[in-house]
Amino acid sequence: MDPLPQDGRPRRLRPAPTAGERPVTRPFPAGDASGTAPGAGSDLPDVMREVARGDKRAFSTLYDALAPLVFGIVLRVVRDRAQSEEVTQEVMIDLWRQAARYRPAAGSVTTWAATIAHRRAVDRVRSAQAASDRERARAAREHTTAFDEVAEQVETRLESEQVRRCLRGLTELQRQAVTLAYYRGLTYREVAQALRTPLPTVKTRLRDGLIRLRDCMGVTS
Length: 221
What we know:
- The protein has about 220 residues and is mainly α.
- Helices cover about 65% and strands about 0% of the residues.
- It has 9 helices and 2 strands.
- The chain has helices at about 45-50, 55-80, 80-95, 110-145, 150-155, 160-165, 170-185, 190-195, 200-215; strands at about 10-15, 25-30.
- The longest helix has about 35 residues, at about 110-145.
- It is rod-shaped.
């Protein structure tokens, strides 16, 4: 995604052509999130028919008329300017590809475009939420699933004097990682953030620390 211009208005790019199927890439007119489509009038159905025939100049006209409207709808749903620009491009590509499916009797061109824009925006929000949910679930699995059965045995005995003595035999980072993960109940990612240490390094220190605790306490697998 191109950086925003100095005036803070979104830089909107048209989809690049592929094998003659997509319109030429160039900025679409700067607009706001008001949902207004400048130039969108009664001639748009005629423009749509030309777009359906693959006329790139007609698509340029359609783009100039609908891009601000689409961007405004998407921005209100997604609430992130950069992602909204991306979704806007996806919607405009949809309009190019699906132009032949447009039927004036079903509604105006702007209504049709607005429906596609809203659907795409909702899909983006749901996708982002699903990704966030997967990340939280993965972090939970990392925390609840011990390295092996030996790690579980160590965890159940953390309050014993023997474990406290063995903890003193760990390196500082190993001891901090084990304490945060098993005494305070942090996930591995939270431990990494607390220690300002890369996650792979924290995982390695936890594993090594648990192995040293096992050996110190005489726990067998």
